Amino acid sequence: MGSSYRCDLNRGDMPEWESKLRQACVLIQAVIDESRDTLEDEDQFDNAADDGAMRAMLDHAKSIVMAELPRKEDKA
Prior knowledge:
It is a single chain. The protein is mainly alpha-helical. The longest helix has 28 residues, at 15-42. It is built from three helices and no strands. The protein is 74% helix and 0% strand. Helix 2 (15-42) runs antiparallel to helix 3 (48-68). The chain has a domain at 26-69.
């Protein structure tokens, strides 16, 4: 029986998927950074808690994806 896609991804045997997922993490981080940067610019502190919750959820999503990828030092 063959291995699962997840095992293949974790092992580094799916470079196309790994590349796409790493790029997705970069994009998620860009949204996190942009939403944090605009907080002070707009002086909309009344929505800060909601925006903070969104950033936390995006960071959690990024962490989940990163956990499925091979660590870069493992690939050397």
